[in-house]
Queue: 2 jobs
Job 1
Amino acid sequence: MMRKFIRYYRPHLPLFTLDFGCALITALMDLVFPFVVRLMIDEVIPSRNLNLIFMISGGLLVFFIIRSLLQYIVDYWGHVLGIRMEYHMRKDLFQHLQKLSFNYFDNTRTGHVMSRLVNDLNEISELAHHGPEDLFIALVTLTGSFLIMLSIHWQLTLITFMLIPVVMTFTILKNKRMQEAFRNMRRKLADINAQVEDSISGVRVVKSFTNEAYEEEKFKEGNDGFRLSKEKALKVMAEFFAGVNFFTNAINLLVITFGGLFIYQGTMTMGEMVGFLLYVSMFLQPMRKLTILVENYQKGMAGFHRFVETLELEPDIKDDPDAMEMTEAAGEIEFHDVTFSYNNREHVLNHISFRVSPGETVALVGPSGGGKTTLCHLIPRFYEVETGAITIDQRDIRSYTQASLRRNIGIVQQDVFLFSGTVRENIAYANLNASEDDIIMAARLANAHEFITGLEKGYDTYIGERGVMLSGGQKQRLSIARMFLKNPPILILDEATSALDNETEKLIQQSLAALSKQRTTLVIAHRLATIKNADRIMVLTDEGIVEEGTHETLMKQQGIYARLYEAQFSQIPTVVA
Ligand code: ADP
Ligand code: MG
């Protein structure tokens, strides 16, 4: 793991060397000041040589300016190093996430992916640049100040250092409890956030059941939990700082008490005692830094672990090494005894076989949960068949590259996803190089041009978050416009019209009918109009494709289709496309 971590430093080696070198020099420079103070008190001030005093002061001024410049380099370029490493890691992770298959996203919560991309990487980057730097500064300062103290007065050093183990134990223990308390607090805060999100996005449900009081009670619980956990954390933190403060002063007290004695004895000078005091406080700082570093190391490495874990996940579905490009498909689709289940659970599709000829429109009907959407997702290879095979133009879809396969297939779903952006950008998503004329033509064919030009800024209207709200039918027409622009030889319509009112549906039926002309179309239908337009109807149930034929022949059979038709379609007014 460490080696993988270090690999990310490699492109930034010059920056790292600069940062690290400057940090080391500042640490060494800091050791000089108390030494000069001691010299001033013991030698320079008693000599009453004003020139020398000014010279030393002037020298120190230059020294401090250089020190500050180095500090600037450490702070600025050190953090730049961190953010550049973070940038590369984030890029790698995002790139990899794009490669992963549906299966990964089915089983991963968005919140977790987000926290990987943001929090984890932030913690890793903190560790990446503070880690080595702080560790070495601490070691230099600790050994440096300790050795100098020994050389000033070893007896006083030993007396002072009797307290150090106590301080260390206290710091480590309290720090640990503090971290635990803060972790607990963050967890409670996340709970509150989740609760607020739930109540707000579900506000219609809350209000329609008049459950406001219940929601308030639930919220109070979370709010109380957070308050108590924060009070606890604040208590531990106050204890920690009070303790650290006491021990620091106790050590100083030891120094001036015993230092005073040694001065009377004549084994120590005033300057030595003041210098000693400064070195002692210099010694205590990195100790605190080290405890924080241990914590950051744990957090950063845990984050890095998760990062590497995600990065090393292989996509479930990969292109065959000698996969070929699918050029313009004729559009023949055939299922050969296909069986499929999600994550090796119960089979959703069992021994499915059927064939759709180029240009044919086939309607797929069946009970909800029967596997219609699943079947459609197998064609662009969003999921892999378990046994059997799917062929397009008589070749197994696994022998094509996924990208070229998917270029030949267009899917219109019931839930339309629009990105935040303009209307134009959302249509052009199907073909990023489309010209303005192409976009408008596609919108016209989708019966969307009218309503788009009626919007305040036409094609430049911003939609999605903080943009205008579109109705379900308008969104659907944009997604159909996308399909006209994409112009794929194979078209899959998955309940594209089931959430629409009659008037809108009529418009959409028209454009869908135009869209499916001269394309192989598989349509999952809820409405009679769509079904009647199909060349053929297939009925999919748990048992597989149980009935097949035209509306009339299937009605005559008096089988499942006839029953489904009675239950589902007959009450809904027929829309003539
Ligand atoms: P239909 O579109 O005919 O209503 P689906 O293909 O959506 O049916 O679902 C078929 C079955 O597969 C259902 O039992 C459903 O719960 C299950 N299912 C659908 N999608 C997933 C998924 N991503 N992971 C696991 N199970 C799923
Ligand atoms: Mg479905």
Note: The mean pLDDT is 89.
Job 2
Amino acid sequence: MALNPYDLYDVRSQLSDEERMIQDSVARFTDEKVLPIIGACFDEGRFPKELIPEIAGLGLLGSSLPTEYGCAGLNSVAYGLICQELERGDSGIRSFVSVQSSLCMYPIYAYGTEEQRQEWLPRMAAGEVIGCFGLTEPHGGSDPANMKTTAKRDGDDWVINGSKMWITNGNVAQIAIVWAQTEDGIQGFIVPTDAKGFTAQEIKHKMSLRASVTSGLFFDGVRVPDANRLPNVKGLKGPLGCLTQARYGITWGPIGAAIACLDEAVKYSKDRILFDRPIAATQAVQIKLAEMARRITLAQLLSLQLGRLKDAGRLQPTQVSLAKWNNVRMAIDIAREARDVLGGAGITTEYCPIRHMLNLESVITYEGTETVHQLVVGRELTGINAF
Ligand code: TGC
Ligand code: FAD
């Protein structure tokens, strides 16, 4: 029997029926709704907001959270497959779902009160309230401990001053999860984006994640009640705990981008006739394609095992760092190689590789740069902190 070229080790056979069904339904959404418009969205620098109701309708927002909050209550492998199929379309669509699910709904669920969960999670699962996550500041995102945004207690309120940079969904969000320095260490706040003193400014001239909104956030004496503070965590482990959730999903997403690029390269190389034969018949091109398939296969096995560890409650942040580093590096290398196989045609957004290649420049930077994740693994091996 012929092997599936995009799943050479039949990883799909390791999935449950439910996981397979979820993968198929998100794959259908990507094929029917994302792929027909995403090249144009990227060219125009437009996030396709019109897809939000269907993304919500498929249960993709906060999909791992319990059903009592209007969420789908899926396991971590299913969440990973969702990220993979969405990013086969575009990293920007996966980013939207990552931020809403792992960076906004997760902290409300994990660190919030029951009232906060009831107030926000069902509407966020339905896509009626969109969130953004403000951790990074303009002076350097890799070192969030050096946070300059402050929240000061004033009676029953908190007053927030400072700024955040590179914030996905900043200009489409109704609430921001904002991390700020307090007398008691770093704490998280739910900040409505219509609060007085809050401004979001969209970042223009991006050559990457063009189908996603990225913003600077500014806080000028923004006042929120104590009821908007996430009371169940203090310190950097609050935001870092959210990042572990999002980074886990990001290990899966780039597998989808890489599969899209391999698919494009295989098809193009079979059609492109040079020197009287398709370039797919040359050894050089076959080695390139085989190399792509090899690296995709390794990444698939890595993420599936990571997901099984997560579902068993045994996942460690260092394991997530290794997989984020490996899988994003795998995808960006494949996107560049696929672009090369397409020759001049590869530089246009008529074909997907250059779009994925440019998007992955953000993916390799956000949620911890490649260097940050390498140093996390190095620290695990040596016991020495090299940051
Ligand atoms: P350290 O000071 O040692 O630790 C502080 C506390 O946090 C705990 N911790 C973690 N908890 C959960 N998950 C993790 N990954 C954790 N890492 C550390 C740690 O146990 C400690 O707890 P406690 O109880 O002892 O207080 O911090 P560190 O030395 O481990 O951190 C250094 C470093 C460089 C790894 C960290 O600062 C870091 O990860 N920097 C990168 C920042 C980053 O990734 N920013 C991302 C911003 S959000 C974003 O990019 C969204 S893009 C979204 C999209 O569009 O998809
Ligand atoms: P810096 O931290 O200034 O790093 C600059 C360089 O220094 C990098 O190459 C880095 O690897 C290197 N470096 C850092 N430390 C060391 C070291 N110890 N040794 C050697 N080299 C080192 N943030 C949010 O909070 N919310 C979001 O929604 C969000 N969305 C984003 C969307 C996009 C499109 C992008 C591009 C970024 C987003 N970010 C978001 C920010 C992202 O997390 C940061 O860009 C990232 O953490 C890196 O921070 P920085 O850009 O300030 O780079």
Note: Residues 95, 98-99, 133, 135-136, 141-142, 144-145, 168, 235-237, 240-241, 243-244, 317, 366-368, 372, 376, 387 surround 3-thiaglutaryl-CoA (ligand 1) (CB under 6 Å).
